[in-house]
Amino acid sequence: MKIYLGSDHGGFELKEKFKEYINRNYQNFEVEDCGAFSYDPNDDYPPIAFRTAEKVVAETSNDNLGILLCRSGSGVVIAANKVKGVRAVELYNERIAAHAKSHNRANLLAFSGDCLSLLEMISFFEIFIKTPQDSSERHERRINQIINYENR
User: Fold this and answer.
1) Which helix (H) or strand (E) element contains residue 63?
2) Rounded distance between C-alpha atoms, residue 46 and residue 75, angstroms
3) Among residues 70, 99, 115, 139, which one is catalytic?
4) CATH, residue 90
5) What is the pLDDT of residue 12?
6) Domain range enclosing 96
7) Is-contact 5 15, C-beta < 8 A?
């Protein structure tokens, strides 16, 4: 699996700590940092979200995962979902983490740099990673409806 990380100033510190966690605990995952590469209180989240999201869908592998952070987590989700093929969700509790994987097949996760601790972020990520996708017909149908709408 390849993980693409991105954050603006609002999630920069948490992104750096999470990157260390992934590199230490998931040596089989390849991690690419898409920025910000230093703390800049005046940076903007949309370019970082677009760049990260584009990388998630650029390769043919369905195993790519994007992880974005900003102050709320919401801004990067809005921006990332403008990229065709991205299914970005904000994770803020365990149930949403599992649902995002099993039902929605999210390929980009967002977290709030202001509202979550590193331990919460790790917990939600772990739940997402360990949850199997539910391949029920209804979920397949719904994902295909989204894909068909995007391709119009």
Assistant:
1) none
2) 8
3) 70
4) 3.40.1400.10
5) 98
6) 2-150
7) yes
